[in-house]
Amino acid sequence: MTSYDRTFEQLLDGIDQIYATAHTAGHADGVARAVMGLIGADLCSYNQFGPVSVLAWSVEPPDAGVFPGGDELFRLHIGEHPVLAHHRATGDGEAMRISDFLSDMKFRELGLYREFYC
Questions:
Q1: What is the reported pTM?
Q2: Is the peptide bond before 61 cis (omega within 30 degrees of 0)?
Q3: DSSP 8-state code for residue 47
Q4: Is residue 33 part of a domain?
Q5: How many Cβ atoms sit within 10 Å of the Cβ of residue 61?
Q6: In a domain, 103, yes or no
Q7: Secondary structure (3-state) at 109
Q8: How many domains does the chain have?
Q9: Under a CB-based contact definition with an 8 Å cutoff, are residues 29 and 9 in contact?
């Protein structure tokens, strides 16, 4: 098996993991876990936005985003989230990253980063 075949197989496994949790309460966790396995990051967060609020969010590894008052801080600063702001303004539901809108330096200036992501 070539490295290309292994990579393709890993991608298919990741997609299978995501679809396995579709339409379940554990979907956000399933997406974060699958993406983490595919890209090999130290931390991965998945946020699913509805028209006016966050529908689901998950952090992988699970204990990375857990700290006292974390949920409250995230909700307090969610209005600063550039992806949510874009979604609300345009209705565009495409998958996007914070870096699609802000440089790392600009993102680090937000209370969302300083109080939650940092």
A1: 0.64
A2: yes
A3: E
A4: no
A5: 13
A6: yes
A7: coil
A8: 1
A9: no
For residue 78, give the amino acid letter: I
- For 11-22, write each residue's pLDDT tens digit: 888 889 888 888
**Domain presence at residue 37:** no
The closest of 63, 56, 66, 9 to 28, measured between CA atoms, is 56
Q: Which domain holds residue 108?
A: 67-118
Q: Give the C-alpha separation, 94 to 74, whole Å.
A: 22
> pLDDT tens-digit profile of 4-62?
788 888 888 888 988 888 888 888 888 888 888 888 778 888 878 776 667 777 888 88
35 Cβ neighbours under 8 A, 6+ residues apart: 14, 41, 44, 46, 60
| 3-state percent breakdown (helix, strand, coil) of the chain, nearest 5 | 60, 10, 30
Q: Is residue 81 part of a domain?
A: yes
Which residue carries 């974060």 as its tokens? 32
Radius of gyration from C-alpha coordinates of the chain: 16
